[in-house]
Amino acid sequence: MAPPVPPLKAPVAAATTAKPAQGGAGPAKPGGKAPPFRAAGPAKRRGRHVVLALSFLLVVVLPGLVGTGYLYTRAVDQYHSTVGFVVRKEEIGSAVELLGGISQLSGSSSSDTDILYEFIQSQQLVSNLDRQLDLRAMYSRPFETDPVFAFNPDGSIEDLVGYWGKMVKIFYDAGTGLIELRVLAFDADDAHSIAQGIFSESSEMINQLSAIARQDTTRYAREELERSVERLKEAREALSTFRSKTQIIDPQADVQGQMGLLNNLQQQLAASLIELDLLRDTTRDGDPRVGQAERRIEVIRQRIAEERNKFSVSGQGPDDEDYVAILGEFERLSVDREFAEQAYLAALAAFDSAQAEAQRKSRYLAAYIEPTLAERAQYPKRLTLSGLTILFLFLTWAMGTLVYYSVRDRR
User: Fold this and answer.
1) What mean pLDDT do residues 46-50 have?
2) Is the pLDDT assigned to residue 314 strictly greater than 60?
3) Contact call for residues 139 and 167 (beta carbons, < 8 A)
4) pLDDT digits over 299-313, tens only?
5) Cα 76 from chain centroid?
6) Is the peptide bond before 380 cis (omega within 30 degrees of 0)?
7) Which residues lie across from 84 on neighbouring strands?
8) For helices 62-73 and 382-409, what crossing angle results, to 10°?
């Protein structure tokens, strides 16, 4: 008999140990149920947190408080005066244009407005107003109390021009040509005086531009008129010299006289020929009257030949000069005189037209807002400036902090 087989033993199950859960949880309970989650404890204060808070205090809080305190305690009130104007160009047409309804009575000139816009910001205007109103004294009066917003009395003219750009704000609409100014000063009367000074200086500058335009319009016409007058004088003097030399006032009238003389001689010749024929028919040979008639006819023919010879190229005129050359010279001088007269009339008409055109077109400065006088100070905008200052400081601090942590995380 075979020996009995011993019973198989069950494998011993290895004891499993569960890993502790994150957050400090103990081992898993029997049955596979996880322990509840426990919140992390409070973060520990570290050095970088202290540095971050100190930087915020030094960069944002303290400068913001200093700036706000300066604005509300030391910044001097500023008054403003507003003035608005536009350059107008009058174009008054003639009576025909007015009846036709095609004239433009007024209009704006954008090019003049652009010039005026640059002139208001120029050193020339600032220098002129400084001489008239003493801008340095007006702007530097509160310098000891408010050195930030006031002008340094020791500054140069370039510094004054730069400060002028802060105190005078220009609003320019290029489409309509309107210019509006906001003039700031530490006194309401000073702001009003400066605004009036700007308007007066601008008006004078526009008047100068108008005068220059009128001079340019009439200058060329005047020069052309002067040249045409000199040309007419020379032509008339040349014709007078010719008449004095030839002792002929009008060669054409002299020619007509010569032609009349020739016609008379031709008539006498014809009458003499007829008389000769009659004598030959009624008298005998050897009659002395026939000889006289023939002699008369010969003299008349010789005189006609001499008179006709004056008009030939080889003929001799007064003072043994070629009569044809005299006639040619007289015609040339007459043409020169007529041309000079026509040129003079045209130049005179152009000059009169230029003068009329210059008088019709005039520029002037029209104020649609007279310089205003403030009753209370509205500048500086303390609340706005304080908010912008704090916002700028905060953005600067935030950007610096982000840059610092970005560089730190890359290490």
Assistant:
1) 73
2) no
3) yes
4) 888 888 877 776 655
5) 39
6) yes
7) 180, 369
8) 170
DSSP 195-254: HHHHHHHHHHHHHHHHHHHHHHHHHHHHHHHHHHHHHHHHHHHHHHHHHHHHT-S-HHHH
Q: Tokens representing 67?
A: 């700036």
- The radius of gyration of the chain from alpha carbons, rounded to an integer in Å, stands at 56
Q: Which two tokens stand for residue 373?
A: 């006088």
What is the enclosing helix (H) or strand (E) of 367? strand 361-369
Q: Are strands 106-108 and 361-369 parallel, antiparallel or unpaired?
A: unpaired
Q: Look at residues 90, 92, 94 and name the one whose alpha carbon lies nearest to residue 107.
A: 90
Residue found by looking up tokens 């008389």 in the block: 275
Instruction: Give CA–CA dist 273/258, Å, rounded.
Output: 22
Total count of residues recorded for the chain: 411
Contacts (Cβ under 8 Å, ≥6 apart) of 370 = 83
Quickly list H helices, 310-381. 323-360
Judged on CB neighbours under 10 Å (0-12, 13-18, 19+), 315 is middle
Using CA atoms, how far apart are residues 308 and 22, in angstroms rounded to an integer? 147
Residue type present at position 49: H
pTM: 0.60
C-alpha separations of 45 from 27, 48, 176, 333 in Å: 31, 9, 64, 115
Q: What's the CA gap between 263 and 363, in Å, rounded?
A: 71
**Chain mean pLDDT for the chain:** 79
**Residue 364: predicted pLDDT:** 81
Q: For residue 166, which phi and psi values (nearest 5 degrees)?
A: -80, -30
